[in-house]
Amino acid sequence: MTGTLLNVGAVLVGTAAGVTVGRRLPAGLQQRVLAGLGLVTAVIGVDLALAWRDTSPLYVLGAILLGGLVGEAIAIEARLARLGDRLQRRVIRSRDRARGGRGESTVSEAFFTASLLFCVGPLTVVGSFEDGLNGNVEPLATKSLLDGFASIALASTLGAGVAFAAVTVLVVQGALTLGAGLFEDVLRADALSAMTSTGGVLIIGISLKLLDLKDVKVGNFLPALVLAPALVGLVSLL
User: What is the total count of domains within the chain?
Assistant: First the structure.
């Protein structure tokens, strides 16, 4: 759980920094922070994607294509968006009742946006498994650094609601880390390499969004993270 606790701390510290000084930064500097985050994320994604050199690229290709079809069919992105809209409306109504007025709230938007950015990425899965199976916190330490800077950028525009994403990080990554032993005999060799490489491809997709180049709806590709090792297992049986 060391990596997860480090990640939670990074989100909280980054949010505090963003709320304290972020709003005072010029818009151009805020954009540079996000651009730098996007570039670093792209490099990490490429590095992880190249793990397919230890297995067959066909596993990754098949997982991405099939995962995208499954995710699109069950509309993962759309469901997440509707959930965010409901949370936003509830927060606004609760605050208006408390204040007796009307207005807009960014708490729900900040929480939802940050939670997606911090937990949807495949580095969450790979890093948690590495921490749980091998005691290797380096992937989550790298993710913590990225999430910390992202928290600064997000909190500077969306406010303190970003801090609530720390709860999501704790629950999701904590569960994956503690349950990693269940996958110890499954996610080995080709299966782990295929999942890591697939995760890297999805991270590249996240970087495209951060760089404001294209929103490839990474959420709809999430099933690929399960399908990649599943394809390896299926081929081994055949």
Answer: 1
* Largest CA-CA distance found in the chain, in angstroms, rounded: 66
**Amino acid identity for residue 44 in this structure:** I
CB-facing half-sphere around the CA of 173: CA atoms within 13 A? 34
pLDDT 10s digits, 158-179: 777 888 889 889 998 998 888 8
Examine residue 65 and state whether it is found in any structural domain, yes or no: no
pTM, full prediction: 0.73
pLDDT in tens, 90-119: 666 665 565 554 445 567 667 766 876 787
On whether the CB atoms of residues 183 and 125 are closer than 8 A, the answer is no
Reading the block at residue 36, the tokens are: 């730098």
Assigned token pair, 102: 């009307």
214 vs 208: CA distance, rounded Å: 6
Structural domain span for residue 50: 2-54+78-179+202-215
Q: In terms of Cα–Cα distance, which of 228, 182, 179 is closest to 62?
A: 228
